[in-house]
Amino acid sequence: MDDSETPRGTAGRHPLHAFREAEDLVEKRRPLDALKALQPVLEAEPDKPSVQLLAGRAYFHSAQLNRAEQALTRVLELDPSDHYARFVLGRTLQRLGRLVEALGQLRMAWAMNPVPEYQDALSEVNARVRLREG
């Protein structure tokens, strides 16, 4: 989120400040508080990938998995090259029990950015899919 691009919110508070506060709250494992802080930014900037990604992370960490899926899917509509959004979407789909879909997202995330965290998630879901298939 860029300070120069965003207008001031209705309460006179700059959306960037609300975004940073929400980001900090997600890092502190307070996703519900983060979503409250982020709400005015979501209303003002619904088509910003960074805003949707932060919302998706907060929804994921608060177990609002359908909302997380919607937000992360929106990120990928706006920016298909966002490997981290694909990773979190893959983990969301995994928690929803949609392992084959999760596997697809995790494979793409790992292909875009082969970091150990992505490889571990990919291996875990791959093993679960193989167990289901018998």
UniProtKB/TrEMBL annotation:
InterPro entries (UniProt xref): TPR-like_helical_dom_sf (IPR011990), TPR_rpt (IPR019734)
Cited Pfam families: TPR_19
The entry's keywords: TPR repeat
TPR repeat start-end pairs: 49-82
Protein name as annotated: Tetratricopeptide repeat protein
Organism for this UniProt entry: Amycolatopsis thermalba
